[in-house]
Amino acid sequence: MTAYIDEARVSLSPASVGAGPVTLVATNQASDTETLTVRAAAGTQALASTGPINPQATAQVTVNLGSPGEYTVAARQARSSSVHAAGLEIGPPRPSATGDLSAS
Question: What pLDDT does 97 receive?
Answer without folding.
Answer: 56
